[in-house]
Design brief:
4-stranded mixed beta sheet; binds 4'-deoxy-4'-aminopyridoxal-5'-phosphate; 7-stranded mixed beta sheet; aminotransferase; globular; pyridoxal phosphate binding; 16 helices; adenosylmethionine-8-amino-7-oxononanoate transaminase activity; Aspartate Aminotransferase, domain 2
Length: 437
Amino acid sequence: QVSTNNLDAFWMPFTANRQFKQSPRMFVGAKDMHYTTSDGRQVLDGTAGLWCCNAGHCRPKIVEAVQAQVAEMDYAPAFQMGHPKAFELAARLSALMPSPLDHVFFTGSGSESVDTALKIALAYQRAIGQGTRTRLIGRERGYHGVGFGGISVGGIVNNRKTFGTMLTGVDHMRHTHDPARNAFSRGMPENGAEYAEDLIRIIQLHDPSTIAAVIVEPVAGSTGVLIPPKHYLERLREICDQHGILLIFDEVITGFGRLGTPFAVDYFGVTPDLVTTAKGLTSGVIPMGAVFCTKAIYDAFMHGPEHLIELFHGYTYSAHPIACAAALATLDTYEEEGLLTRAADIAQHWEDGLHSLKDCPNVIDIRNLGLIGAVELDPIAGEPTKRAFSAFLKAYDDGILIRTTGDIIALSPPLIISKDQIDELFGKLRTVLMTID
Ligand code: PMP
């Protein structure tokens, strides 16, 4: 048993301490599809950690690469210096991302990737003589991390209302999710390009030549797996093009195989100007993010006329050698095992399993795409989040890890999940949903 004496010493991110202390849950080991709990139980991972361990846990090649790198060179600055693995990784990543998004900037997390992408977009507009373009547009229910940039463009009001002034000149498009319309949808809901017209509403509120960029998650993850209707992202792209606005896809969750293609860019066939990634880049082993953009945009940011005098951007841990080693071994694992497209092969089995929960009590919607899924529960009147949280606790006791957001159960297992494990996950989830109030 692990001691819980020092629970006051650590602030649990995302987790209400009071509630956690009542029933502490500790993981002490992980392998492939499972966690080991402090009381020695195996828990099937239905969430890839926190949408990040796409290759599964403690995969030998990645573990060995990290161990070898720690022994060889722990750290090297990315300031006035480089190291070969950073360039090798950048080359491999740009080959994976559809052209022309062939330039890469390394960060230490998803939040840093988002801040970096917003800064690049603003700097690029300025470098091409569009310095009046300072406004940024996000979307309701968008999640872009917890940096000031990310909470400003993010669509979760609670995450920013405590902190006073955010980035100024930020608007939020209405989100695309209509529970009645999406109820029990399979794959992408029907044509809904008109949702993108909300961008036009915002453009009309302001002079379009004041808008720098629009940022969206291709599929919103953390706020409950909100799958865009068909042609929505294409229409956003068209509107941005018409008005000289840059389009940023936040692929921190959708990147690295989640939808059955390497990136959502491939899945939707829509090419934005910038893409943010993190999580699956190192399969969660080491914190790392990467921002992708075109050469023209990158050059304006890093080598623009004003760069040497006023622009400085980079992190101490940009292109950290251990993170680069982990990412290279992760890419090897993805490639050797075909994981970046595996979700497409198994998506039907996943979809059938998920939709088999349709008749469980209190289920009001089910959504899925690739190896991502959501079961939305009817909230208990006056006690929002309670029902899904009870499901989470019961699931943990029954040996499956799920994630909840509000009254939505979100699922995104490692991409190595077998058909039998999918059956086990949904079999146990059915028992959970049948048992809780
Ligand atoms: N963007 C998206 C779409 C995310 O899902 C997340 C994390 N859930 C972030 C940004 C922030 O990433 P991090 O927690 O690594 O800062």
